[in-house]
Design brief:
The structure is a single chain. The protein is α/β, with parallel strands linked by helices. The chain contains twelve helices and eleven strands. The chain has helices spanning about 20-35, 75-80, 80-85, 105-110, 130-135, 150-155, 165-180, 200-210, 235-255, 280, 310-315, 320-325; strands at about 45, 55, 90, 115-120, 140-145, 160, 185-195, 215-220, 255-260, 285, 290-295. The strands form two sheets. It has a nine-stranded mixed β-sheet with strand order 9-8-7-5-4-3-1-10-11. A two-stranded antiparallel ribbon has the order 2-6. Strand 3 (about 90), helix 4 and strand 4 (about 115-120) form a beta-alpha-beta unit. Helix 8 (about 200-210) runs parallel beside helix 9 (about 235-255).
Length: about 350
């Protein structure tokens, strides 16, 4: 049975125009060659809509760092206009809940004027406000974060999320999707696996089937605090394998895609500190505070987007080129080993 893994070089597939096809091919070629100054544009642009959130997850790293509540300004799209003609996808994702950005609908509307694939990750609590916009502006993919197959489990982990409200929102989207006879949005769950919920995974697959969602994606908990170490699945491979094997069998039977992380000891990184990182070639990330970062998972910054005259200047800035040069050669430290 084939196990789906989180994508590294590849992205979701959709119809690309000639400009996008040429750019994606060139981007992959430059990625494979390890080029540091790129002629290609990124294949994905990631926009952190906000650092604010309307719920409080017990595992969230927000509690372990200082987060000023910032909201990405829509005029960021002006400087991105040329890049948007070349890239494949724009993902609205970051530390906060994207749907609480007051300009969320306007972002979808502007992005729909291009051929990019539109994708956002959400806690699902505000989806009822945007059902019309999801179809009017043709959102391609929605990932809903849910960490339990009922309110008893999920709402204890994702405090304030209200399981029943999220499920009702998903049902409303699926109903609208069927009424219109369209194949978008692609819907999937993102499930943070930890000691207190990993046994819920088969139930999550069943729930996805019941709600007519296409996929369940599993990620391991990152323990940002001492208190969360007890929830970590580190050195619990027997439990993880048992649940993953049962879940794979069920997913295959039900026809639900299941995307799993590597089990400890089997990761493709081998003896290295991290597997090869490709975000410096594939992605361009803009934080809600205007900062340019390799991805959401690091505080490493390459300046502010507004400080650059053009997108191209930011994309090939000295710091960005230095990152591409060293990220996979720096076996002893990973992305956080770089000077800010």
């Amino acid at each position: 049975m084939e196990i789906l893994r989180a994508k590294t070089k590849e992205l979701f597939k959709s119809a690309l125009d000639e400009t996008q096809q040429k750019n994606s091919l060139l981007n992959m070629q430059e990625m494979e060659s390890g080029a540091v100054k790129l002629n290609a544009y990124p294949r994905r642009i990631v926009l952190e809509m906000t650092s604010a959130c309307n719920i409080k997850c017990i595992f969230c790293g927000r509690d372990e760092a200082e987060f000023n509540q910032t909201y990405l300004k829509i005029d960021v799209l002006d400087k991105l206009s040329n890049a948007l003609k070349h890239c494949e996808e724009v993902t609205l994702f970051g530390w906060g809940e994207p749907t609480i950005n007051p300009k969320f609908s306007q972002f979808l509307e502007r992005l729909n004027q291009t051929n990019v694939r539109k994708y956002f990750v959400t806690n699902g609590t505000q989806l009822h406000k945007y059902i019309e916009d999801i179809f009017k502006y043709k959102v391609d993919i929605i990932a809903v974060s849910l960490d339990g197959a009922d309110s008893k489990v999920n709402d204890k982990i994702r405090v304030g999320a209200e399981f029943t409200r999220i499920v009702d929102n998903i049902k409303a989207i699926v109903a609208k999707k069927e009424a219109l006879g369209v194949d978008y949005p692609y819907l999937n769950f993102v499930f943070v696996a930890m000691e207190s919920n990993i046994r819920e995974l088969p139930k999550m697959i069943q729930l996805a089937k019941t709600l007519k969602m296409q996929e369940v994606k599993v990620v391991f908990l990152t323990a940002f605090s001492q208190e969360m170490l007890q929830e970590s699945l580190y050195n619990k491979q027997t439990l993880v394998k048992e649940v993953f094997e049962a879940s794979l069998e069920l997913a295959q039977t039900l026809g639900v895609k299941l995307k799993l992380p590597y089990i400890q000891g089997e990761d493709i990184a081998g003896e290295k500190y991290h597997k090869d990182c490709f975000v410096g070639w594939r992605d361009f990330f803009i934080g809600s505070d205007d900062s340019i970062r390799p991805c959401q998972s690091t505080s490493l910054k390459f300046g502010n987007f507004s400080d650059f005259a053009t997108f191209e200047d930011a994309w090939n800035s000295p710091k960005m080129q230095d990152f591409r040069k060293n990220v996979n050669a720096c076996a002893g430290g990973g992305i956080n080993a770089f000077a800010v």
